[in-house]
Amino acid sequence: xxxxxxxxxxxxxxxxxxxxxxxxxxxxxxxxxxxxxxxxxxxxxxxxxxxxxxxxxxxxxxxxxxxxxxxxxxxxxxxxxxxxxxxxxxxxxxxxxxxxxxxxxxxxxxxxxxxxxxxxxxxxxxxxxxxxxxxxxxxxxxxxxxxxxxxxxxxxxxxxxxxxxxxxxxxxxx
Length: 174
Fold this sequence. Notes:
Number of strands: 13
Shape: elongated
Largest sheet: 5 strands, mixed
């Protein structure tokens, strides 16, 4: 099993051969019982993107890859009024979800690119961290999709990028 404490001590020696040791220090270990926390999203909460066919959620700790499924995410088009829950919202179909352990990122792939408008994305259980702690509360972030082509996927539509002297085929020139 997992130990509940660690015992630490230090030993030093000088060039004359004198050796001294510290007293033992016992450090209690607290098990991780906290659910995963979101570190950021793409698009960012309140952000604007040209087009969208996937979104990402970044976490502060490793996730259980098996818990990263479409059931843990949703995307809703907020209708003509841009207000969540006002009756004109439309759910967006999710094709799949994957996990990049190196980036601690869940990538949610949509069935097709979305049209222009305001959106709300949610993350919730059954999403769990590597220790099995399930996400306790639903987390929502909102963003606006302009519905304009963005060939390099950098979030700035091609027409806007060209107008500011950028290269719409190179995300590194913005």
